[in-house]
Amino acid sequence: MPRVVRLALPLVALHVATMSAFRLAFFIVFRNPQEALSGAELAHAFYVGAKLDLRLAVLVALPLLVLGGFSWLDPWRHRWAAIAWQAHYGFWTTVLVLTHFIDLGHYGYLETRLNAAALQYIEDPKVSGRMMWESYPVGWGLLGLVLVALGTWFGVRALLRRPAFSTPTSVAGWRRVVVGGLCGLVVAGGVYGKLSYYPLRWSDAYFSTNAFVSNLALNPVLLFADTLKNRRQSFDVEAVRASYQLVADYLGVEERDPERLVFARKVRPAGLVGGRRVNVVIILIESLATYKVGCFGNPMHATPAFDALARDGVLFRRFFVPSHGTARSVFTLLTGIPDVEVNETSSRNPLAVHQHTIVNAFEGYEKLYFLGGSATWGNVRGLLSGNIVDLHLYEEGDYDAPRVDVWGISDLSLFEAANRRFRELGERPFFAVIHTSGHHRPYTIPEDHRGFVKVEADETALRKAGFVSLPELNAFRFLDHSLGWYFEAARKEAYFANTVFVLLGDHGLPGSAAHLPYGTAELALVRFQVPLLIYAPGLLGPGREVQTVASEVDVLPTVASLVGVPYLNTTLGRDLFDPRSDSNRFALTLTDQYRVPEVGLLGERFYLRMPREGGVATLHDLTAVDPVADVAAEHPEEAARLQRLCRGLYETARYMIRHNPPAGQAPPG
User: Fold this and answer.
1) Which of 562, 582, 660 is nearest to 267 (CA)?
2) CB of 425 within 8 A of CB of 462?
3) Of 260, 470, 528, 615, most Cβ neighbours within 10 A?
């Protein structure tokens, strides 16, 4: 056997063993003990994962196997060649270990394996680095990587000096050809991965409907490389034009122009109180997933303040944001366009930063945005200050309160600062957004907590209720405590009776809980479903619940209509209180954690999902005993109808991101 092959074998085995150990650690750390998993599926996941690991290990060894046989790169003939191969393996071993460690943290944070979407965090290196430093033992990790690199360096050097690897073999003639051919077949087999016409692919890991089992099989390095090619996307004008009439019907466009693709609607609502300007306060709450909220059935009762508000307000129980991610949510809230960019937020795209927003329709209003940290995060500063006329943006450095962690001041201090500013405005009307961030790693509870008391809870009960840790539960409770403190203070202020409060989560969270109906977690709806609460007891009457589907794109049209502000709507949102749309309401969902990103359309009964770039769609009956089952064959007409609308809304959203420039807000005349 050639020397380079003998040298590569233990190194391939080392890499496979290392990655398999990380897979075992992934299983031990993230397995939900409350969930029954199929032993056969788990075994197959480890099997597929091992083949993916072998592919990567062979690819790392390929340069040595191909080039190491040339005399000028022979590590036994030239010292510099030996140093080069030691450096090669030291580098790649460090990369493999580092990537797998990052993957564990990424999954623990987002319950998604590491993919190219994580590159968005590099675009804010200061904030991301600070959060990593405060949440994880970065210093020890760096020391460990140095030791890995050095250990590999000296390990390869030791192998090169051992007679078992350094002694050449004399194989000549046809035997040399046979040995070379056999080695080539083994290498090709390791890369190809299957005895079939098609090679092993990432989709082989998705053999199970159980998300954890599929995630277990994935290799994060290969997944990251596979998702890189889907990071960019544009729009298709012809696809938008083909679905123009369908989308225009859905939106209620009266003045149509299929050539210029006009979607604008001029709206003159009556409003709640004629002749009086009503204040608006939108509270955008970090990671307020419905399954963690008490009034949605969570047994930990972590949100008594929110639950009390919900009893006296209008609570939308089937409200969904289009995407998972705060920057995406801010973009959607302000523009009425789902953030359809793959693996990169539209707020970070210079070509998409200038947008029309209904916020500007509130003429004569003071416009305020309160953020505990820096608006440089996610480039939301450009989205906010570049589009909202006369915006007063409050961020870190503008408050008297101390910074408590990477996300800035505490939510309680943020509410206190906002309440103080509202009081100072006197009788001037205002439109404000209070953007919280406390339900977020590192789950900091500030010293100034106004009587907040941490609780202890059994870990099994925590996980059964959908919380990942006790610090998360207490941070979630402190968020609610801060919310309760704010409303107690606001009720004493003059502005309170003349204000519509809108509370919503910026996005859901991956995970599961015992009280969730089957299918909610399995179809990943937990990522999108958040509460929407409109609270104005003196203006809206007694509390009630709304069961129709609602989307984040609908928030600003609904708010403007409620308070009687005329506006120009150029995007996909509609008034949630307009009965003309009640029989035809849908929410678009977007996932980008897969190699082939998906788009979905969720209605009252059915949920349709399909690849964004086209392909076979699946249809799920949310009212069925098994909502995970694909029922497209049983309901072909409904599947076709929803697929047309889903494709139309998706292509229109892609187009709108680049074709929604700021414009006059209030309809003329």
Assistant:
1) 562
2) no
3) 528
Instruction: For residue 500, list its beta bridge partners.
Output: 280
Cα-to-chain-centroid distance, residue 378: 13
pTM confidence score? 0.83
In 3D, which of 354, 346, 368, 364 has the Cα closest to residue 663? 354
Q: For the chain, how are helix, strand and coil distributed in percent, rounded to 5? A: 50, 10, 40
Sequence ranges of the chain with CATH classification 3.40.720.10: 268-566
Sequence-separated (6 or more) residues with CB below 8 Å from residue 495: 279, 422, 423, 425, 430
Residue 40 contacts residue 117 (beta carbons within 8 Å):
no
* φ and ψ of 104, to 5 deg: -60, -45
Q: Which residue has the tokens 């990103």?
A: 597
- Name the helix (H) or strand (E) containing 41: helix 39-67
Quick one: angle between helices 3-30 and 138-161, nearest 10? 150
Please choose, from the candidates 613, 654, 624, the residue with its C-alpha nearest in 3D space to the C-alpha of residue 241.
654
CATH class of 268-566: alpha beta
Amino acid identity for residue 245 in this structure: Q
DSSP assignment of 382-423, as one string?
Answer: HHHHTTSTTEEEE-TTS-SSPP-BTTBS-HHHHHHHHHHHHH
Half-sphere exposure of 49 (CA within 13 A, CB side): 24
pLDDT tens for residues 522-579?
999 999 999 999 999 889 889 999 999 999 999 999 999 999 999 999 999 999 999 9
